[in-house]
Write the structure tokens for this entry.
Amino acid sequence: MDKELIATHRDFLKDSLRQAINFRFTDQHQGVEPPPLQKPPRPEQELIALPDKSEWAAFRGTDVLDAIANRMSRRRFKAESLSLAELAFLLWSTQGIKKQLAPGTAVRTVPSAGCRHAFETYLLVHNVDGLDTGVYRYLPVEHALVLEHEDSDLVEKLTPATLGQAFTAAAPVTFVWTAIPYRTEWRYYTAAHRVILLDAGHVCQNLYLACEAIGCGTCAVAAFHQELMDQLLGVDGTDEFTIYLAPVGKC
Ligand SMILES: Cc1cc2nc3c(=O)[nH]c(=O)nc-3n(C[C@H](O)[C@H](O)[C@H](O)COP(=O)(O)O)c2cc1C
């Protein structure tokens, strides 16, 4: 291994990156408006309302100790659909908004450095009650979905987009998180990228634990074909791109 190359890349893991920044020159300190909490839906997109907490009574009762103890990466899923209430619960658990604090800032069910929450959640749906096969996106502000586009070849495209990991295509729904880096760069400039990745871990861990609570399973996937996955979602690959994904199904 090239030790110099490794040393350069290790720097990315160090907080010295943040300490080198003059925060007076960040967009936040220059008075630039914060970017929006979520990517706005296109005008023609209709909002699909999601069941809220009032419909999640059946999901209560799993001891947090059991959920943590039983959590594991699950790659085999039953050929059963997910209900919309189950999907809504998993979305809220991973990115749900609890309170808006100020323009561009809201506290969610997961932590985020500087409360910047750089992620959008896309769903590759092919077996969820009431939803046609296609690519959807979660709107945490409204706790709703929008259909990004229908795609009857979704399942065929998913295996190559995950570098041959066929278990992703067998899941009734796959969560795909993109990053919109500017949301965090606005505050942290070049130190943003390290904390965006730290933030992503919290999101996926909540998905693991929420899945355990409702008889589902998931597996974090960081090995994927960047361009194919971005194409599948319809994101530009520059200002927004895939960083992590996780298929979900009944176990
Ligand atoms: C950042 C990250 C990336 C991962 N990427 C993949 C992946 O691409 N494919 C896969 O099958 N598992 C992937 N995993 C799952 C790990 O293989 C799994 O967590 C590990 O083997 C430990 O097993 P456990 O989660 O059951 O405890 C990933 C896990 C993490 C945290």
